[in-house]
Write the structure tokens for this entry.
Amino acid sequence: MYREQVVSLSSADFYMLDSEDPLAPSADFAQWRQGVAWAAGLYEQSLVAGPVPRTRLLVQDEPTPVINLASYNYLGLATHPETVAAAKAALDRYGTGACGSPMLSGMTDLHRELERKLSEFLGYEQVMLFNSGFGGALGMLAGLLRKGDVAVMDSRCHISLIDGVRVSGARLELFDHNDPAGLDALLTKHAGRRRIAVTEGVFSMDGDVADLPALLSVTERHGVGLVIDEAHSILTMGDNGRGVTERTGVEGRVVLKYATFSKAFSAVGGFVAGPANTIDYLRLFANSYSFSCALPPAMVAAVLAGLEIANRDNSLRDRLQENAAYFRSELCGMGLDIGVSTSHVVPIVIGSDRTLLYELAHDLRAKGVYVAIADYPSVPEGGLRFRCSVTAEHTRRDLDDALNIIADTVVPRLA
């Protein structure tokens, strides 16, 4: 029953339901969820410690030690003494929440300080803050685009960006991943209409980097602005941590930069940086900003501290890149498929065998390795995978212990 259902169906099969009541999913959906409970138990797992390299998961009500390869705590700032102290101090001064939207009563001097420091750090005229990474990306595009506009987006972009275009009513066109010729064809197709181009810095499921010089040569020829989501690359890439735009030498040419605070900043929320006029417009028309409570001041204080720590020197970034390069090299040496990753986001591609994917995930967890599972439709049906997140906090022993378990568990099943 389990094998048949897992192999033949995914969540994508239940997006359109045949039930008469939208509040009551079909009996088929309930039956499928029951049938795949063993696999579903690998999602929404409960940590009983922090997002650190050696942590504990609640497995069958028992705290179980694992090596954590699923966390976005790329620079280790989530538990850094200075970020924790800054959050505690802000909690004492400002309380637990902002208790109002930033347009009304939710803004504090801390929020303004973070806007100013991010603007100076990134070299953009203005920055605005969102209380959600997903909501910020969605709100940014929904606030800018209107019916009749066209967003030309890399096919591997995050669902938050896709949803932002859909909410706006604009036309969404996807070009083949990192393909400037495909981008050029779609911009040409929609010449004469209001258009933007959208890409990511580090792609969240593949771990590769946008070819910004090639993409910008196309957008600039068409007179179209480029928007980039640097969620996984902010603080982690570039000599000063300004992301893939800095790493590829194109700073000043990307019109809008979006990023989250939930990855390397190790907090919550996000921001968009850009020209003052554009940001001022978004403050009024990005509904996820105007009609949602502002970030808790304690989170803002933690982000401010994290920004200072990450740019005190390059030691955390250097350690992250060294760890990521070592981990990728060792996986390749085992003959495992890591796709096109060149970053700290490292997939282990399993293929199309969904049952194998979940069996291996259970085996890895039982032996002490915690990885994120990427199933269709988050990734192509033939590219089911584990996504490993390497951090600066991982020691060589952490990585070697995890690699040994992967070698004993995954390699024989894929041989």
